User: What shape does this take?
Amino acid sequence: MNTIQAIILAIIEGLTEFLPISSTAHMGFTAALLGMEESEFLKMFQVSIQFGAILAIVVLYWKKFFDFKNFDFYIKLACAVVPALVLGYLFDDKIEAVLGNQIAISTVLILGGIVLLFVDNWFKNPRIHDEKEISIKKAVIIGFWQCLAMMPGTSRSAASIIGGMTQGLSRRAAAEFSFFLAVPTMLAVTVYSVFVKTWGKGTGTEMKGYEMILQDESHIYLFIIGNIIAFIIALLAVKTFINVLAKYGFKFWGWYRIIIGIALLIYFYSTK
Assistant: This one.
């Protein structure tokens, strides 16, 4: 992976992480279209640059994250993130096995797009417009909905936003809580991928993520630049998405997923 490829992947991550279109799918497709050789470092890089994206959320909503008087906020996030931590750990190997199956991911992208076409009609009368009105029980339910995104192509953002809307949240409130929930979720995933997970099992070159990063000066550089770019792009993308979603709903994103998914299915079938 060269610098240009790393920057492109980081831009894709920053743009798509908080949109209901699956950042994992888009980075995987981008890597494939760029002809990038699948490697353990590439896989780890795609996960670890989520750290830059979540920093954007902390910066944009710093008053919320550093309001230590609102202890309920931290309890809700802690309870909501537990399902993803437990199930993600249990199914880590199975999730990784699907990451290279672009046809399966394209199919999930299309199916998710079809769902998004109808979401606005299903939840027309929201009752909750602010995070403070979300109970711990509702937060946990949203956390379980987030687990649907363990299937690459689903979109963590889409799953948790729809989960919020099933609990009576408005589109804006559901999107913002999805962003808040992304911080502990993706922080845990990043820490696990960099410091805990052993990459390349069975290849004879097993390494922790940080060992791969420190293995080469170019890896250190790519890791740093990737997170910086993801951070900057996510800063720009989040506020735009919130405004578009609150005003226009999910249909645009549904059609986008369907069109991109069909185009990618045709491409990957033709190159098999």
Summary: The chain has one domain: 3-270. The chain has 14 helices and two strands. Strands lie at 198-199, 207-208. The first strand starts at residue 198 and ends at 199.
